[in-house]
């Protein structure tokens, strides 16, 4: 009930004489607990770690180099095939271009036939080299 | 796979067929190719290099016709594989090996 009835000591004069009721250690105290650091000093040394890292890195770069050689060989094969085909495609495009150019020149002659002093055909640039026509359209018949 | 020839039997020079036969073209039509490239370097005008271009086209078409006659089945399968894989050589190694075994280049 009250604290005095629980912690009663016979012959006590006042409440201030009640015996202590505490949670405490067992008699003899607790067992000792180690809390000191014990980090072991074994394992690979600094040189060993460095050599392992350097070895892994260099082996990896060697594999990268081997892979790059293989990839370059594949790309070279593709480029060589394209180089072999290029003149065929250029020849076909030249034929098509010449045909269209003749049609264009005839059209220009028809449109400008009454303009005095107009030389039909190629009054483009003055450098003497041939430049492709700069209409801004690649294939007018398709676009 | 389709065939590389059209209705008459002539091989059609599509990109797949050309890429499949590219190594043959590179060796057998080398002179014509170099002549056209040199002509183009000197003068890029298309009208000036038309004859060399015609020689190149004739060489390539004759070569395709030869290949179509000698090893048409391997050429068809290789060009079909190229067409399927959009001219990537790495995907068609098997067909390439069979094609080169059937029609070795000079």
Please provide a written account of the structure.
The complex is a heterodimer of chains A (143) and B (106). With 143 residues, chain A is mainly alpha-helical. Chain A contains two helices and no strands. Chain A is elongated and about 145 Å long. The mean pLDDT of chain B is 88. Chain B is mainly α and 106 residues long. The chains are: A mainly alpha (143), B mainly alpha (106). The interface between A and B is medium-sized, with 23 and 30 residues.
Jot down its keywords.
heterodimer, A: mainly alpha, about 0% strand, B: about 110 residues, mainly alpha, about 65% helix, repeat (chain B), electron transport (chain B)
Given helix and strand content, the structural type of chain B is mainly alpha
Helix content of chain A: 40-55%
Into which percent range does the helicity of residues of chain B fall?
Answer: 55-70%
Q: State the major sheet of chain A.
A: none
Helices and strands, with pairings:
The complex is a heterodimer of chains A (143) and B (106).
Chain A: H1 3-6, H2 46-111
Chain B: H1 15-20, H2 22-28, H3 30-42, H4 50-70, H5 72-84, H6 93-102
Subcellular location (chain A): Mitochondrion inner membrane
Keywords (chain A): Electron transport, Membrane, Mitochondrion, Mitochondrion inner membrane, Respiratory chain, Transmembrane, Transmembrane helix, Transport
Organism (chain A): Penstemon davidsonii
């Amino acid at each position: 009930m009250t604290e005095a009835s629980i912690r009663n000591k016979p012959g006590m004069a006042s409440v201030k004489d009640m015996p202590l009721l505490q949670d405490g250690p067992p008699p003899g105290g607790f067992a000792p607990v180690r809390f000191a650091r014990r980090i072991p000093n074994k394992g690979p040394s600094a040189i060993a770690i460095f050599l392992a890292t350097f070895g892994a890195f260099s082996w990896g770069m060697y594999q990268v180099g081997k892979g790059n050689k293989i990839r370059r060989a594949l790309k070279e094969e593709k480029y060589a095939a394209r180089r072999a085909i290029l003149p065929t495609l250029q020849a076909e495009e030249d034929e098509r271009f010449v045909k269209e150019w003749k049609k264009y020149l005839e059209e220009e002659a028809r449109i400008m036939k009454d303009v005095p002093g107009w030389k039909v055909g190629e009054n483009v640039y003055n450098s003497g080299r041939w430049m492709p026509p700069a209409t801004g359209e690649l294939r007018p018949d398709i676009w | 796979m389709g065939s590389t020839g059209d209705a008459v039997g002539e091989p059609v020079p599509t990109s797949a067929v050309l890429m499949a036969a590219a190594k043959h073209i590179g060796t057998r039509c080398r002179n014509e190719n170099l002549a056209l490239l040199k002509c183009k370097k000197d003068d890029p005008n298309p009208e000036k290099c038309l004859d060399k271009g015609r020689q190149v086209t004739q060489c390539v078409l004759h070569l395709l016709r030869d290949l179509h006659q000698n090893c048409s089945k391997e050429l068809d399968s290789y060009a079909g594989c190229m067409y399927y894989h959009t001219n990537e050589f790495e995907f068609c190694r098997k067909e390439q090996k069979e094609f080169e075994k059937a029609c070795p280049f000079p």
